[in-house]
Design a protein that fits this description.
single chain; 207 residues; alpha/beta; eight-stranded mixed beta sheet; 3 helices; globular
């Protein structure tokens, strides 16, 4: 099968990390799609979402370069919009990441530099395991979840779709994080977090 052009969605900081991840694997994106040129990427600005819709899905694969700062909903909506139009999303694993052979990655998952994904862990569609994050054995990370840089999920943690785990947070073994919940940077989570809740601190409490 002929190699498809890679196009990044977004032109911000996370998109630049995605570009770096692709380049590290010797894969140069054809460009990025964003409302305006950003100047943060070293590949061409191709146009906005309308340009991509007119271009069509044939012969290309997308990478979701939209980052999340506590809210994963925009990233999820963009993924759904283009997936519904027949676009495929690339699943990325940085060459410096450690991925167990028994781990499972769904379409569009992103495992970034120095991240660790342990045995029998499952990473959902469009989820991010960011730089130096650790997802231990038998964890289940749902669709569109963002595990921030340096965060640690101990064994058998479950993060429901749309959850956000901030940089440097730790979730101890066996904990469940509900759909759309927010765990602040540096928190230590020792109890289950309900859907939509926001927690912070050591130990983490709602705020």
């Amino acid at each position: 099968m002929a190699e498809r052009d890679i196009i990044i969605l977004g032109g911000g900081g996370h998109a630049s990390v995605i570009e770096d991840t692709l380049r590290a694997a010797g894969r140069i994106p054809a460009g990025y799609v964003a409302p305006e040129p950003s100047g943060l990427l070293g590949v061409p600005h191709l146009g906005d979402d309308d340009w991509l819709a007119e271009r069509g899905a044939a012969g290309i694969v997308l990478v979701n370069g939209l980052g999340t700062i506590g809210v994963t909903d925009l990233r999820r909506r963009v993924f759904a919009r283009f997936s519904d139009r027949g676009f495929a999303f690339e699943t990325l694993v940085h060459g410096d990441a450690s991925l167990s052979p028994s781990a499972e990655l769904a379409e569009g998952a992103q495992i970034l530099a120095a991240a660790v994904v342990g045995p029998h862990a499952r990473i959902g569609r469009d989820a991010i395991v960011n730089m130096s994050a650790s997802v231990n054995h038998h964890c289940h990370v749902g669709d569109h979840v963002h595990i921030g840089p340096g965060a640690i999920l101990c064994g058998t943690v479950a993060v429901a779709p749309g959850g956000f785990i901030g940089a440097g947070a730790t979730v101890i073994q066996g904990i469940s994080i509900g759909q759309g919940a927010f765990v602040a940077a540096g928190a230590v989570v020792v109890r289950d977090v309900p859907a939509g809740a926001r927690v912070r601190g050591v130990p983490a409490r709602r705020f």
